[in-house]
């Protein structure tokens, strides 16, 4: 009786009887690919590669502001992948077969799922900061280099983490885990439910949930376009110079542009989903199109996994210092 009273003021999530665009079988296929098999394999590689990148940036030192920014991005990517690894683990058939006293997807979605979203937003803001820094270095080189000192860059990166991550907090004001009877499993389970504050917080959470990723995405697109334009404009002049510093800056700018381009491709589905959710109010975790929503989320998580796992290739191929440090690490280990 007590659990029933506690749950009386909560809108417990149930499967809608309305016709869904994606049935349960098709949804399970997407979940298996994006969470259990391919997605998890890329995730594990991404975790290992980001650990390697942290070690490399530590050895390179932090005299260059770019190393500080890229280290922050690498740490954010690592945290994003670790939380997503735990979420994916909860979606495996073996985990479901344990007959645990809670609904795995619900608990994982509210805990590590939203934690992943928080770190993904940190990645958004850090990527925007990095490409903005490179863009300004081309447009206003003397002024920016005087302003962006290593200490200031480190402080900016540190501040971005809590501010960006805090954007997920509204969800915890409207949702919680409660016990509810499951007819499918014929027992009481811990599930995700929304409380009475949901309607009041809907407008606030929509603004908070959209403003950071959307504004960061737009800034990244604009700065990337400006940087590419300026690089093409200055390419002839820079090709004729023998200044090693200028050549190093050009390689760094191209590397940052490629990182931003990968980000834009991987995060474009996320921006599309945001707009879609504004148009279709039933595209929600507990809406009439819950299966479609969950499939879209699985695709977003897979794309974010790709983004967080591919930067190591960019660093290795486009940064001579990174390339040399990695080779020294592995060659040195072989010699020993």
From TrEMBL:
GO terms for cellular component: membrane. Residues 49-315 form the G-protein coupled receptors family 1 profile domain. The keyword Transmembrane helix applies. Keywords: Membrane, Transmembrane, Transmembrane helix. GO terms for molecular function: G protein-coupled receptor activity. Pfam families: 7tm_1. It is found in: Membrane. Its main location: membrane. This is Neuropeptide receptor 15-like.
């Amino acid at each position: 009786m007590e659990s029933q009273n506690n749950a009386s003021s909560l809108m417990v999530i149930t499967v809608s009887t309305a016709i869904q665009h994606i049935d349960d079988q098709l949804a399970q296929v997407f979940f298996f690919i994006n969470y259990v098999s391919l997605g998890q394999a890329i995730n594990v590689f991404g975790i290992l590669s980001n650990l390697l990148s942290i070690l490399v940036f530590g050895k390179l030192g932090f005299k260059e502001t770019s190393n500080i920014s890229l280290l922050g991005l690498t740490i954010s990517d690592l945290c994003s992948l670790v939380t997503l690894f735990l979420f994916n683990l909860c979606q495996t058939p073996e985990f479901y077969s344990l007959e645990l006293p809670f609904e795995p997807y619900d608990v994982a979605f509210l805990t590590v799922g939203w934690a992943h979203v928080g770190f993904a937003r940190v990645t958004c803001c850090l990527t925007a900061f990095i490409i903005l820094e490179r863009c300004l270095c081309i447009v206003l080189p003397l002024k920016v280099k005087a302003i962006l000192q290593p200490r200031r860059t480190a402080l900016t990166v540190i501040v971005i983490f809590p501010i960006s991550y805090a954007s997920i907090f509204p969800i915890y004001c409207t949702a919680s885990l409660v016990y509810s009877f499951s007819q499918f499993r014929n027992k009481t389970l811990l599930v995700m439910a929304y409380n009475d504050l949901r309607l009041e917080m809907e407008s606030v959470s929509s603004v908070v949930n959209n403003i950071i990723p959307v504004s960061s995405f737009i800034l990244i697109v604009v700065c990337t376009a400006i940087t590419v334009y300026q690089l093409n404009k200055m390419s002839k002049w820079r090709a004729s110079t023998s200044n090693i510093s200028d050549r190093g800056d050009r390689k760094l700018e191209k590397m940052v542009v490629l990182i931003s381009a990968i980000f834009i491709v991987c995060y474009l589905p996320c921006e599309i989903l945001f707009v879609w959710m504004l148009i279709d109010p039933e595209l929600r975790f507990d809406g009439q199109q819950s299966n479609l929503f969950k499939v879209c989320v699985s695709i977003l998580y897979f794309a974010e996994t790709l983004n967080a796992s591919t930067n190591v290739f960019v660093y290795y191929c486009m940064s001579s210092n990174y390339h040399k440090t990695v080779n020294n690490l592995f060659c040195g280990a072989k010699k020993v």
